[in-house]
Design goal:
Helices cover 9% and strands 49% of the residues. The protein has 151 residues and is mainly β.
Amino acid sequence: MAQFATGVTIIAAPLKSGEFVGFTANSFNSVSLDPPLIVWSLARHSRSLAAFESASRYAVSVLAQHQVELARRFSRPHADRFSGVDFRLGAAGAPLIEGAVAWLECRHYALHPAGDHMLFIGEVEGCAFRAAAPLVWHSGKYLTAADQLDS
């Protein structure tokens, strides 16, 4: 699957404590237009799994090509991944990362176990986007839209 180029997202949700949980995901895709549904997955051994399973709403920020360091930060253990990160709260209180290419605010729709991951299906309640080049994940590394793969 490393040969399948994907966009890079940060998926985030508010916790009851007032803090946030979030991680970098490239396992993200659209499912349906009517109703508008998206899907993403999280490893069953993830420390964030219980928090996302109990979240009624979450946000997906599609990262721009200049946000490689954010993608790395949210993919590694970090005491407070959101500390010093520029974000705003969406309608449901989930963080939307500033500077991203697109933002989707979702309501939990369904959860399905699949091998060593859980599939989360979300119903998109709101979205926005801006004209900017996306960050891409391919063959184990981050690429920008301007990068070209070796022949």
